From TrEMBL:
<dbReference type="InterPro" id="IPR001608">
    <property type="entry name" value="Ala_racemase_N"/>
</dbReference>
<dbReference type="InterPro" id="IPR029066">
    <property type="entry name" value="PLP-binding_barrel"/>
</dbReference>
<dbReference type="GO" id="GO:0030170">
    <property type="term" value="F:pyridoxal phosphate binding"/>
</dbReference>
<comment type="function">
    <text>Pyridoxal 5'-phosphate (PLP)-binding protein, which is involved in PLP homeostasis.</text>
</comment>
<keyword id="KW-0663">Pyridoxal phosphate</keyword>
<dbReference type="Pfam" id="PF01168">
    <property type="entry name" value="Ala_racemase_N"/>
</dbReference>
<dbReference type="InterPro" id="IPR011078">
    <property type="entry name" value="PyrdxlP_homeostasis"/>
</dbReference>
<protein>
    <recommendedName>
        <fullName>Pyridoxal phosphate homeostasis protein</fullName>
    </recommendedName>
</protein>
<feature type="domain" description="Alanine racemase N-terminal">
    <location>
        <begin position="2"/>
        <end position="214"/>
    </location>
</feature>
<feature type="modified residue" description="N6-(pyridoxal phosphate)lysine">
    <location>
        <position position="31"/>
    </location>
</feature>
<comment type="similarity">
    <text>Belongs to the pyridoxal phosphate-binding protein YggS/PROSC family.</text>
</comment>
Length: 218
């Protein structure tokens, strides 16, 4: 089982970085994976999972929740405002808050329901056209705006460009978080979670290294 292997590598990266063992949360990214694979990770005792799409998560997690207690679900993909209400029902944490309109919708839902998932703000550290997230130069203002809306902002999230050294992006995200007094850093995936931990990641999002390659053709 790759889960134990990844957990061991996380512990080692924590120790190497002089950080407390257990200070990094492993989000097992189960998007597109067959239910049998997800179930085997649940059977191994893991409870923290990440999904990219509200619709996909709604199709499988209510059933898993009937069989397993204390599932902690994280939305790590883009969120349309018209799916926000459904996201509230499914997810304990939303990592992809990336624009004022979405922040306002979440604040309104929180008012209405008396509950709000934990929030991470996504920063487009590579300033890529096709990628979600606020520009690094706008991040401080966006943090201020979300705090004024009384959102429970826990930290920042980034997805580095595929063709660049991820460490530079992790370091930039850590710097923006620090100057805004934010502790949470959602960064690092299968290929780079150890360097993310070295640079302060509190949440790593690891999919294929745990579950195997995703089969989008299925
Ligand atoms: C799919 C995905 C991951 C996991 O990617 P792997 O390379 O399979 O570990 C992490 N974060 C986000 C935002 C993703 O969409």
């Amino acid at each position: 089982m790759s889960l134990s292997n990844i957990t061991a590598r996380i512990r080692k990266a924590e120790t190497d970085a002089g950080r407390d063992p257990g200070s990094v949360t492993l989000i097992a990214v189960s998007k597109v994976q067959p239910n049998e694979r997800v179930q085997s990770v649940l059977e191994a005792g893991h409870r923290c999972f990440g999904e990219n799409r509200v619709q996909e998560a709604a199709g499988k997690w209510p059933d898993f929740r009937e069989s397993y207690d204390e599932i902690d679900l994280h939305l790590i993909g883009p969120l349309q405002t018209n799916k926000a209400r459904q996201a509230f029902e499914l997810f304990q944490t939303i990592h992809s808050v990336d624009r004022p309109k979405l922040a306002k919708t979440i604040a309104r839902l929180a008012d209405e329901t008396g509950y709000c998932p934990d929030i991470f703000l996504q920063v487009n550290t590579g300033e890529e056209d096709q990628k979600a997230g606020v520009m690094p130069a706008d991040a401080d203002n966006f943090v201020t705006e979300c705090r004024a809306l009384e959102l429970p902002v826990k930290g920042l999230m980034c997805i580095p460009p595929v063709d660049e050294e991820p460490s530079l992006h992790f370091a930039l995200l850590a710097k923006i978080a620090e100057r805004n007094g934010l502790k949470g850093l959602s960064m690092g995936m299968s290929s780079d979670f150890e360097s993310a931990i070295a640079l302060g990641a509190t949440h790593v999002r690891v999919g294929s290294a745990i579950f195997g390659e995703r089969d989008y053709g299925a």
